[in-house]
Design goal:
Blueprint: H1 3-7, E1 28-32, E2 35-40, H2 51-63, E3 72-77, H3 88-95, H4 100-119, E4 124-128, E5 131-133, H5 135-142, E6 145-148, E7 153-155, H6 170-178, H7 180-189, E8 192-194, H8 195-201, E9 206-207, H9 213-225, H10 229-241, H11 247-261, H12 265-275
Parallel strand pairs: 2-3, 3-4, 4-6, 5-7, 6-9
Antiparallel strand pairs: 1-2, 7-8
Helix pairs in contact: 2-4, 6-7, 10-11
Length: about 280
């Protein structure tokens, strides 16, 4: 019996050791050189999400917790746009016919996508071009690194469709990235944040030319994938968990986490490579 089945039978469905053959149906998924790439692929409508793609993205990020062949993830959109949010006809229209229990099921499901993104150990890089709105802006926000083109427009436009800005963790995560006042401005007015503003405010790590965006994102992902992936996963976990810790709690948690990393073979490899004046080759164990 698989040990995961003994520990938690419900996890077995997500235990796909090799992710290269993951059967994605509502977006494109490829794995190359330890980097998984998600392509939101409805370019004719600026890559909106559907009920099915929301759920499938959530399930993919859950599955990545158990992946052995993916060490970093890039997410981008086809056709020079990132994602226009929830599909007006396939999501927004049906939602206005539902009652509270069904609506809560939907909002919890979308929130689970962000939770799964934050819990998966692989760093996620968003390559953002063109329209990045609504749930698309949330997916970019929930990523670990964000690179943008000069013409991208990012909008948390929930207010403009009669909804609160507190969607999928926006009121918790966005202020931690760009500050409370700037987050308040975007969430109250629903206005677009330019690429220049996004870089200046810390939302985007760098502005890249349109032609080079995906190449740059993949290059950065490959650097991460070739690094000490177990330790990188610990870094991501601590960056997320320490939001709710005091400084003393964070220092103690980091002490424990770093002690665990010192037990890894990658730590030993780095030392021996330094002694031998060579570049370490990390294997993630």
């Amino acid at each position: 019996m698989n040990y995961l089945e003994k520990i938690d039978p419900g996890l077995l469905a997500h235990n796909r050791k090799e992710m290269k053959n993951y059967p994605a149906q509502h977006f494109l998924w490829t794995v190359k050189d330890k980097v998984g790439t998600i392509t939101l692929n409805r370019p004719d409508r600026k890559n909106p999400l559907t009920f099915e793609s929301y759920a499938e993205l959530r399930d993919l990020f859950l599955a990545l917790q158990f992946a052995s062949d993916v060490k970093a993830v890039v997410i981008h959109g086809a056709g020079n746009n990132f994602c226009s949010g929830g599909d007006v006809h396939e999501i927004i229209g049906p939602l206005i016919t539902l009652k509270t229990p069904e609506l809560l099921m939907f909002t919890r499901m979308t929130g689970e996508l962000v939770k799964a993104m934050r819990k998966c150990p692989q760093p996620i890089i968003a390559a953002v071009d063109g329209v990045c709105a609504g749930a698309g802006a949330i997916i970019a926000m929930a990523s670990d690194l964000r690179y943008a083109t000069a013409n991208c427009k990012t909008a948390f436009l929930f207010n403009r469709v009669g909804l609160a800005g507190c969607d999928m963790g926006a009121c918790a995560i966005l202020p931690r990235i760009i500050g409370q006042g700037r987050a308040s401005e975007l969430l109250f007015f629903g206005r677009s944040m330019s690429a220049e503003e996004g870089e200046r405010w810390g939302f985007f790590n760098q502005i890249i030319s349109t032609d080079d965006l995906l190449t740059h994102a993949n290059k950065q992902a490959k650097l991460i994938a070739d690094g000490p992936s177990f330790a990188n996963g610990i870094t991501k976990t601590m960056l997320h968990q320490e939001w709710s810790m005091t400084i003393d709690q964070a220092i103690e948690s980091e002490a424990q986490a770093q002690a665990i990393c010192m037990l890894t073979e990658d730590f030993h490899r780095a030392y021996h490579a330094f002694v031998d004046k060579q570049k370490p080759i990390f294997e993630g164990n």
